[in-house]
Design goal:
- The strands form two sheets. The protein has a nine-stranded mixed sheet. The chain has a four-stranded antiparallel sheet with strand order 10-11-12-13, covered by helices on one side.
- The longest helix is centred in the middle third of the chain and has 17 residues.
- It has a domain of 205 residues: 3-Layer(aba) Sandwich (Glutaredoxin), CATH 3.40.30.
- A hairpin with a 2-residue loop joins strand 10 and strand 11.
- With 298 residues, it is α+β, with helices and mostly antiparallel strands.
- 23% of the residues lie in helices and 29% in strands.
- It is globular.
- It has six helices and 13 strands.
- Helix 4 packs across helix 5.
Length: 298
Amino acid sequence: MTTPDRFFCADAARMRGDPLAGTAPRGAVWVLIEYRGAWPSNGYDGIALDPETKARVWSAAHEVRARIFLIRRLVRPRPEGPGRWAVLHYEPAGAYRQRWGTWSRDQDLLEIAEALRTPGHLDLPPVVLVCAHGQHDICCAVRGRPVARVLGERWPNLVWECTHVGGDRFAANVVVVPDGVYYGRLDPASAVEAVEEHLAGRIPPDHLRGYTDLAPPQQVAVAALLARFGPAGRHAYTVTATARDGDDWRLRVELHAPRPTAFDIEVHAHRTGPYRLTCQGPVPGPAVAYEVRSISSA
């Protein structure tokens, strides 16, 4: 896809072999707002809403460190009627909670502030978000939209396009919420395989960026075990100890089934670069990458 005339960050990252594991942003709460107008480059911050409503929603989300994504269905013509909104929570015990509503007037979105203070409902199907935010980064549209299209055809009730999720160079990016699982460097075929596995209760390692409830070295440790032993459930592994010595990390991760097993994993962090990490980033910068040095049974 790269041409002499244009730089594509996702192509460059593939050529460098940038590692995926350990790149999922931290987070446990998400706000989704169906927005059918044009998405500005800065997402929610740039859309035209009643200023007081917009500020109150942002403040309520900021208070609980929730991320706000704009979402839309990849269908033509655009749906009519009220838009939808959702608040999704991932709880440390593994419970997934959601609350959904609709909005026709800007002020209807004030319900989001209240929903952020309530737990929401269990037993709802997960939401599959595909970053297709071309105004933020062209790679997100070029690589994300074909993935959104094929996933939307397969699971029309679960899949939404969304604004910037982080990690433009790993496009196409898919986030499953409130599970809090990031996948990257997908194409239509690998996206279907990854989501199929995920919905079947098996997290595939090949395109895994990480779990959003874990710190980057912890994400790397879990991804290494999935790569070695094969797909496993979202909560099959638990990080029970994390120790740091400079750029080196030692982690203990426990596998709960088929029998209790513990692993000690050594991870080394280093700075890369400097590289252009986004299509529009004018100044090259470093990134932090992680290398698994050893895995041993505890």
